[in-house]
Specification:
single chain; 7-stranded mixed beta sheet; about 200 residues; about 45% helix; alpha/beta
Length: about 200
Amino acid sequence: MPENQQQINPMIIPDFFNNIRNNYYVANKIIWLTGYIEWGLITEVLRRLNFYNDGTKDPITVYIASPGGECDAGWALIDMIEKIKKSGTPVYTICAGSCSSMAAVILSAGSKGYRYAFPSARIMIHQAGIDITGGKLDDIANTTKELQYWTDISAKYLSKVTGKSVSVVEKELCYDNYMSAAEAKKFGLIDKVDVYMA
């Protein structure tokens, strides 16, 4: 190799494209929420939402692909989305792949008219649940009360965003209710089924 020719670090090219991608996401206010919903993931999403809500009123887009997860973390995100919408900034939500359980409720929290799903997406809603592997009788009773609390607020919220009565929503939550994108649109969880989200 000639003396004046420097060896190229093989990490430069991936870093270069990662920087381009990340800059694109920031410039267009795009967030990806993927994987199990827990506080580590949601804290990062909350930070990005707070950063993107800069007073310009430009829409924020949240792509969601998740099996669901922890109710308290999910509802913290929904509360933040509601706060941002009330400030006048639209929040677009898009289901890519599948949104189940808590993720489906987050999907439904987007701005009215801007809740999307890809044509092959699957969306599932159900009651709040937990894997109980042990515990005292009173502990199990308290856990049941807590699950009922999360199920109740989910039913009331889904009633608000879908326009269906609470009793109808509660009935639909009684089992793992899987929907196609078109069925989710008919139910009122999303507004549009499309590949192009403009």
